[in-house]
Amino acid sequence: MKLTIINGPNLNLLGKREPEIYGNQSFEDFLQVLRTKFPNLEIDYFQSNIEGELIDAIQRAGFSSDGIVLNAAAYTHTSIGIGDAVKAVPAPVVEVHISNTFSRETFRHHSFVSPHAKGVIVGFGLKSYELALQAFI
């Protein structure tokens, strides 16, 4: 099974940015843990701080992967375009967030992705990605 993880803005700073919220591990290091833990999965990875690049990645993966694990980060709450991209592709999408977005600022309580996602996982730290992968298995 081929799955694609797509991360949005500022997630390239995991391990450095607000460790009290996001932890001390880089996503690249965590990705190696996931690949070891799920050897039967082909896991592709893409990260960008640019909204259009994320839409392009969703469109590519949406027609070539069996599923997408998407953490659109702040774009979750602002991007109609990302929500439309998720709606437009046949691959199912699981939306993930490292932090519990509902315990944070009010603007983070709304998602343009959720209405089109297979499911949503929030608040379990990097384990949210592991749970999303398990949802596809």
UniProtKB/TrEMBL annotation:
<feature type="binding site">
    <location>
        <position position="108"/>
    </location>
    <ligand>
        <name>substrate</name>
    </ligand>
</feature>
<comment type="function">
    <text>Catalyzes a trans-dehydration via an enolate intermediate.</text>
</comment>
<feature type="binding site">
    <location>
        <position position="84"/>
    </location>
    <ligand>
        <name>substrate</name>
    </ligand>
</feature>
<dbReference type="GO" id="GO:0008652">
    <property type="term" value="P:amino acid biosynthetic process"/>
</dbReference>
<feature type="binding site">
    <location>
        <position position="71"/>
    </location>
    <ligand>
        <name>substrate</name>
    </ligand>
</feature>
<feature type="site" description="Transition state stabilizer">
    <location>
        <position position="17"/>
    </location>
</feature>
<feature type="binding site">
    <location>
        <begin position="98"/>
        <end position="99"/>
    </location>
    <ligand>
        <name>substrate</name>
    </ligand>
</feature>
<comment type="similarity">
    <text>Belongs to the type-II 3-dehydroquinase family.</text>
</comment>
<dbReference type="InterPro" id="IPR036441">
    <property type="entry name" value="DHquinase_II_sf"/>
</dbReference>
<feature type="active site" description="Proton donor">
    <location>
        <position position="97"/>
    </location>
</feature>
<dbReference type="InterPro" id="IPR001874">
    <property type="entry name" value="DHquinase_II"/>
</dbReference>
<comment type="subunit">
    <text>Homododecamer.</text>
</comment>
<comment type="pathway">
    <text>Metabolic intermediate biosynthesis; chorismate biosynthesis; chorismate from D-erythrose 4-phosphate and phosphoenolpyruvate: step 3/7.</text>
</comment>
<dbReference type="Pfam" id="PF01220">
    <property type="entry name" value="DHquinase_II"/>
</dbReference>
<dbReference type="GO" id="GO:0019631">
    <property type="term" value="P:quinate catabolic process"/>
</dbReference>
<keyword id="KW-0456">Lyase</keyword>
<dbReference type="GO" id="GO:0009073">
    <property type="term" value="P:aromatic amino acid family biosynthetic process"/>
</dbReference>
<keyword id="KW-0028">Amino-acid biosynthesis</keyword>
<keyword id="KW-0057">Aromatic amino acid biosynthesis</keyword>
<dbReference type="GO" id="GO:0009423">
    <property type="term" value="P:chorismate biosynthetic process"/>
</dbReference>
<feature type="active site" description="Proton acceptor">
    <location>
        <position position="22"/>
    </location>
</feature>
<dbReference type="GO" id="GO:0003855">
    <property type="term" value="F:3-dehydroquinate dehydratase activity"/>
</dbReference>
<dbReference type="InterPro" id="IPR018509">
    <property type="entry name" value="DHquinase_II_CS"/>
</dbReference>
<feature type="binding site">
    <location>
        <position position="77"/>
    </location>
    <ligand>
        <name>substrate</name>
    </ligand>
</feature>
<protein>
    <recommendedName>
        <fullName>3-dehydroquinate dehydratase</fullName>
        <ecNumber>4.2.1.10</ecNumber>
    </recommendedName>
</protein>
